[in-house]
Amino acid sequence: MGLSLAQLISLEVKDDARGGLMVAQIGAGLPFVVRRVYWLHGTKPGVARGFHAHKKLRQVCVCLAGSVRVVLFDGQREESVVLKPNHEALYLEPGLWREMHDFSPDCIFMVFADAEYDEADYIRDRQEFIRYRQGGQG
Length: 138
Ligand code: T46
Known about the structure:
By secondary structure, the protein is mostly beta strands. Helix content is 7%, strand content 44%.
């Protein structure tokens, strides 16, 4: 898919005649020890989410059902990727602005994170984020 701001990582596929089984574990898709898992579901029509960056948090995002478009911005360049249920997960390193758009009504978007929730880790203002990146702290 040619992403440069983030990485699409391959998860282990253990499908057999009974159906699908996907694995995310250290060394096979997960680049960190998971300390928190959360997921978005039942997103209302026309709603977009995100609109923030993280200072330290690392995340692996998986679309378990439906589809969602993730927009990434590093302070200069913007890229977008449509996530759907497949063998790929989106690895987001810190210092990336992200927005989630075009959730399908059945979308289930799950995130593995390497730290507990901490509001102080968020930059929720786009101009502040651009200044943060220009300051070389991203
Ligand atoms: C992200 C994208 C992909 C908590 O209390 N604990 C949590 O673990 C999370 C994730 C959120 N919250 C609270 C914080 C807010 O008061 O739940 C409320 C909604 O969170 P937020 O507006 O940040 O939701 P999104 O969908 O904009 O962003 C979330 C994650 O916060 C964020 O880390 O990268 O999903």
